[in-house]
């Protein structure tokens, strides 16, 4: 993505740590946790890979279309899962945003020189509004969760899952701002 290297590395670390925790959540005894955690791990690691500062690593030309295909498949899976559970609509928006960013990066000739406004302003703006709202709502939802009891192991703690989703929302806002 565009932007200075230091914030980029912080975003990489945040997203990679979130993806790692989501992998841990995949070992949960709660089936709902396991199913959600796989898609969230993919998002976390995918966001980390896309956020590596361009000054450090310039991906090959095939990487952006590959991201679009992977996240397009994840979007189709989220669309299918949304038939039974509305929570998957958020996953659909997230994976679609990743497809959008990958397509913009692939279509931008010189996208590693740090220019702004490469995406369609209306789509980028709508995604920014959605994820900013999601971050604010997730932050509010997280506040009362700290007063509860710890349920099970690390993979079964709902307040940590909400914190990871909040982190990925913040990361998505940061990535869209640099687009």
Coarse shape: globular
Q: How large is the share of residues in beta strands?
A: under 5%
Order of helices and strands: HHHHHH
Spatial extent as radius of gyration: 16 Å
SSE layout and pairing:
Layout: H1 5-25, H2 31-51, H3 63-81, H4 88-107, H5 121-142, H6 158-178
How is this structure best summarized?
Helices cover 69% and strands 0% of the residues.
Description:
The protein is an all-alpha fold and 179 residues long. It has one domain. The protein has six helices and no strands. α2 packs parallel to α6, α3 runs antiparallel to α4 and α5 runs antiparallel to α6.
Keywords:
0% strand; mainly alpha; 179 residues
């Amino acid at each position: 993505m565009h932007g200075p290297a230091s914030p980029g590395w912080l975003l990489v670390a945040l997203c990679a740590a979130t993806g790692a925790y989501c992998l841990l959540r995949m070992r949960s005894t709660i089936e709902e946790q396991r199913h959600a955690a796989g898609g969230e791990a993919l998002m976390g690691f995918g966001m980390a890979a896309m956020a590596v500062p361009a000054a450090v690593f310039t991906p090959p030309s095939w990487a952006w279309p590959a991201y679009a295909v992977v996240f397009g498949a994840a979007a189709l899976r989220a669309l299918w899962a949304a038939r039974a559970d509305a929570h998957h609509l958020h996953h659909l928006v997230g994976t679609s945003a990743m497809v959008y960013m990958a397509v913009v990066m692939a279509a931008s000739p010189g996208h590693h020189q740090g220019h702004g406004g490469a995406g369609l302003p209306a789509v980028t703006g709508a995604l920014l509004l959605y994820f900013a709202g999601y971050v604010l709502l997730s932050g509010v939802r997280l506040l009362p969760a700290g007063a509860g009891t710890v349920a099970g192991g690390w993979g079964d703690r709902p307040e940590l899952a909400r914190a990871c989703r909040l982190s990925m929302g913040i990361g998505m806002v940061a990535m869209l701002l640099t687009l």
